[in-house]
Amino acid sequence: MNTRTVSLHILFLFLLLHLIDSLDTLALNDTLRDGDVLISRGRKFALGFFSPDTLLPSMKLGLDRRTGLKWFLTSWKSENDPAPGSCSYRFESPGYRQLFTYKDRAPYYRGGPIIWKPHGSVPSMPDNFNYNVTIVNNATEVSFMLDTWVVSRHVLHESGLLSHFIWHDEEQRWSEFNYYPKEQCDYYSKCGPNGNCGANNADQSDCTCLPGFEPESPGDWYLRNGSGGCKRKQGASMCRRGEGFVKVTRLKLPDTSTAHVNMSLSLKECEQECLRDCSCTAYSSADESVGEHGCLKWHGNLVDTRAFSDLGQDLYVRVDAMDLARQRKRSTLVKKAIVATVSALVLLLLGSLMYCLLFKRKRGLRNRLKIELEPNPAKILG
Description:
By secondary structure, this protein is α+β, with helices and mostly antiparallel strands. It folds into two domains: 46-182, Agglutinin, subunit A; 185-328, no CATH class. The protein contains five helices and 24 strands. Strands 16-15-23-19-24-21-22-20 form an eight-stranded mixed beta sheet. The chain is extended.
């Protein structure tokens, strides 16, 4: 093969490759929206917006209202495959602001509504952890941003687990500080609609019904399966028949996706508003930074509540007149029992104190008498 033939072959291959590459392009009129991916005609490359699996301080979650761009985390497909997985972590603003983990597009874990109070319901942030929360809600964007005083990061795993890592400068390593979901009660709607989850330990959960409700399926509840939730007690009259509200303390407030919010109302005004509206199921304060003000109202089912031992907010649940009377009677009996117990303890303490004083005094008299009765050697010798 001569030099001319070789040159022609090289030129032909060059033109062929150039033709292939020229076809493998994106057109000028191709549009790209958030969540979309444009594939080149030759399927050699892709262009798109890819959400990360890691949240760093000062990164935003939310929505850019001008462009429609959404800021959220997306898990990897697997530990070694960075393709988008089935889980996402988002800041949701419909109803009232809260943080969600979704798995296969279904709610998997909810961080709870972000109530304005010191160290509110921000997932994986304990009371002794310094951080600032910035929430923006205007014509331009609605967003959530977490800023901390230490180097930290949140990572969304392919399983749906959200881990919080902190950097240890002395040891030059990341350590897992917290993770969610951690307990059975952390999983979304573990006890179903109108059910309240109270964990005895991390592996088990005890489901109870909120005041005014009863198990939807008593048989399932007997088998410790409360996922079916609760329904209104049979025969309950809930509209202008003497009904009222029962206070449930230290609670993770229900899902606020469809809750009504009015920040101008006090807690008392919120109660009156809810009482006038027969469809209002429950209410709570929306701002606990200075007292209790702002009004959150729920209509319909109360979903994804759980009890805490030392955290949470107060929820006021609507009950009928009969339940209200029973709750008040129970509350009165509890108060009487507390008063009786405290009184008995005080009497016992006073009795013990008097006994100790009398015993000490009696022992002192006995010692003095013993000294007086003993013979004095000096007197005997004299």
